[in-house]
Amino acid sequence: MSTDEKNAILARIEKLERQNRRLKRAALVCVAALASIVLAGVLVAQTTHRKTTKPATKPKAAAPAPPAEPVVPEKIEAQSFILKDASGRERAELAMAGTGPSLRLLNQSGTALVTISLNDGTPSGPQVLLSDPDHQSGLAISVQQGTGSSLSLTGTQNALVHVGVTKDGTSLELLDQDGSSTNLGNGTKISRTGKAQQTTGASITLYNKDRKLLWSAP
Questions:
Q1: Section 22-47 average pLDDT
Q2: Residue 216's closest CA among 176, 183, 193?
Q3: What are the distances in angstroms from CA 113 to CA 22, 31, 86, 103, 118?
Q4: How confident is the model at residue 31 (pLDDT cuts 50, 70, 90)?
Q5: Residue 164's CB: how many other CB atoms inside 10 A?
Q6: Residue 76 carries which DSSP code?
Q7: What local confidence, expressed as pLDDT, does residue 54 receive?
Q8: How do beta strands 181-185 and 187-190 pair?
Q9: DSSP state of 158
Q10: Within 13 Å and on the Cβ side, how many CA atoms surround 8?
Q11: Cα separation, 140 vs 152, whole angstroms
């Protein structure tokens, strides 16, 4: 092989080696660029995930403790208690009166229609009074120490029914609006001569409006 041929072969080999080195460098550049693109994509994805991920919720605050039970006093002391309705009108009163404790229930006009009282005087004892708003009709019940118990019903124009039980016996009195009356049982009879006589439980006595004896038995 001549010298010229050898030189031509060597020149071609050197040219191929230069081309091969350029290809390697180009391949490395492509690989580096591709790696950069992949890394940038990963960073963008992580950033987006952080933005879209909801922040951790704070733990719920503990529920407030239930209110303490109201303290109910064992005893309330006062001279009187007044109950009012939604309009501010007095409708009931529990108070110490001059003769003892009393409970009054009032209508919207302030009139007492029910009264329950305890009399500390003489004779002492409880009493219940019921009345209509005009005080024309009513009912009274009383129990008095040493005197006995009684029930009275009153109507218009002084009509009256009275039942009494005392240490002297029992009695029933019927009185109409004109004043005429019938008395049954124990009591005091005024004769036509004006003499007072004690009657028994089996007695009936009739009087006119002037309290004059009309008839009696026995």
A1: 66
A2: 183
A3: 123, 109, 20, 11, 17
A4: low
A5: 20
A6: -
A7: 53
A8: unpaired
A9: G
A10: 5
A11: 5
DSSP element (H, E) containing 148: strand 148-154
d(CA 115, CA 117): 6
**Number of continuous H segments (helices) and E segments (strands) in the chain:** 1, 14
**Please, what is the average pLDDT of the chain?**
83
pTM of the complete model beyond 0.85: no
Q: How many C-beta atoms lie closer than 10 Å to residue 125's C-beta?
A: 19
Q: 135-143: list long-range contacts, CB under 8 Å, 24+ apart.
A: 135/111
Per-residue model confidence as pLDDT tens digits over 194-210:
788 889 989 999 999 98
Average pLDDT over residues 11-17: 71
Q: What single DSSP character describes residue 12?
A: H
pLDDT for res 28: 66
Q: Is 171 exposed, middle or buried (0-12, 13-18, 19+ CB in 10 A)?
A: buried
Q: Which residue has the tokens 């019938």?
A: 182
The continuous run of DSSP H or E covering 181 comes out as strand 181-185
CA–CA dist 95, 112 (Å, integer): 14
**Two tokens, residue 86:** 């939604």
Q: What pLDDT is stored for residue 2 in this prediction?
A: 67
Cα→Cα distances 21→11, 16, 117, 209, Å: 16, 9, 127, 154
Q: Is the dihedral of CA 166, 171, 172, 175 positive or negative?
A: negative
In this predicted structure, what is the pLDDT of residue 131? 94
Each domain of the chain, given as residue ranges in start order, spans: 77-154, 167-218
